[in-house]
Amino acid sequence: MSAERRLFFALALPAKLQKQVIKWRADNFPQDTGRPVAAANLHITLAFLGEISELKADALTRIAGRIQAHKFSLCLDDIGHWPGSGVVWIGTKRAPNALLQLASVLRSHAARNGCHQSTLPFHPHVSLYRSATRPVAIPPATPNWQLDAEGFSLYESTYERGRTRYRCLQSWPLADIPAI
Ligand code: ATP
Ligand code: MG
């Protein structure tokens, strides 16, 4: 059996926001939009590591623990559909620098440890539907939810009995923004 695991760093959505997003999604999209992402799986990927060995996972876990990054908030005020990948998503029109920096640091450490990184620019988003390959009627706006990021996590993704599940392996807090 392979000891490799499919891992990624991500920001979780707090349970209250998960519920709000799921309710809004049900009220604002036709039922045949695609495969809805389960409430517990709503997240913003920071860096995708792919299927990696325990050794690499350990190295990246140690590195993650040494990252010094600050808390940030982002407004989920953007929405879109990527027909190529079949993803309907919500995101932000103004990604905070702290988020971009955190993703950039994680992605460069991942690349240095042999985890292939996409050449596409980082576009922080929460996937709402997958397999949405046909045209989708996108609601004109989101309710502009605010996401307060207080930490980031390493997740394992497994696929069993037709279901993708994420298991949080470890979380790290983000530092308070120093008072001026
Ligand atoms: P499923 O593939 O079963 O539909 P999923 O895409 O959520 O579900 P994974 O494929 O394990 O599950 O992906 C975990 C996270 O990593 C998701 O946010 C996904 O968008 C992202 N991801 C997957 N593959 C890549 C990739 N090659 N490059 C960048 N991000 C990726
Ligand atoms: Mg996938």
UniProtKB/TrEMBL annotation:
It is an enzyme of class 3 (hydrolase). GO terms for molecular function: 2',3'-cyclic-nucleotide 3'-phosphodiesterase activity; RNA 2',3'-cyclic 3'-phosphodiesterase activity. It holds the Pfam family 2_5_RNA_ligase2. It catalyses: a 3'-end 2',3'-cyclophospho-ribonucleotide-RNA + H2O = a 3'-end 2'-phospho-ribonucleotide-RNA + H(+). This is RNA 2',3'-cyclic phosphodiesterase. Its EC number is 3.1.4.58. It comes from Rahnella contaminans. The keyword Acetylation does not apply. Hydrolyzes RNA 2',3'-cyclic phosphodiester to an RNA 2'-phosphomonoester. InterPro entries: Cyclic_Pdiesterase, RNA_CPDase. NCBIfam families: 2_5_ligase, PRK15124.1. The active site is at H43 (proton donor), H125 (proton acceptor). Belongs to the 2H phosphoesterase superfamily. ThpR family. Keywords: Hydrolase. A motif (HXTX 1) lies at residues 43-46.
